[in-house]
Specification:
The protein has a single domain (about 5-65), classed as Arc Repressor Mutant, subunit A, CATH 1.10.10. A two-stranded antiparallel ribbon has the order 1-2. It has about 70 residues and is of the alpha+beta class. It is built from 3 helices and 2 strands; from the N terminus they run H-H-H-E-E. The chain starts with a helix and ends in a 9-residue tail after the last strand. It is globular and about 35 Å long. Helix 1 crosses helix 3.
Length: about 70
């Protein structure tokens, strides 16, 4: 299972993920790239910026998968 698949499964289970969690859980140093690819594949992933003690970081969560049927004209 690729890191992308692992991150997707984690998000689909209802979890949010941060870069530090991705590194710890899946050995991923490029969570932003994985999230970009998942968005390109049609997943509605939202970003929340979290203020830490000395830094800010992103937390990502999955809303839903966008499909062709979700769009309609008008």
């Amino acid at each position: 299972m690729s890191q992308k698949d692992k991150v997707l499964a984690y998000l689909q289970a209802g979890n949010a993920i941060t870069p530090l969690e991705a590194l710890r859980l899946f050995g991923s140093l490029r969570l932003g790239a994985i999230i970009f690819n998942l968005r390109e594949a049609g997943y509605d992933i939202r970003t929340t910026m979290v203020q830490g003690v000395n830094n800010r970081y992103a937390s990502y969560h999955l809303r839903e998968r966008i499909t062709q049927g979700d769009f309609f004209a008008g």
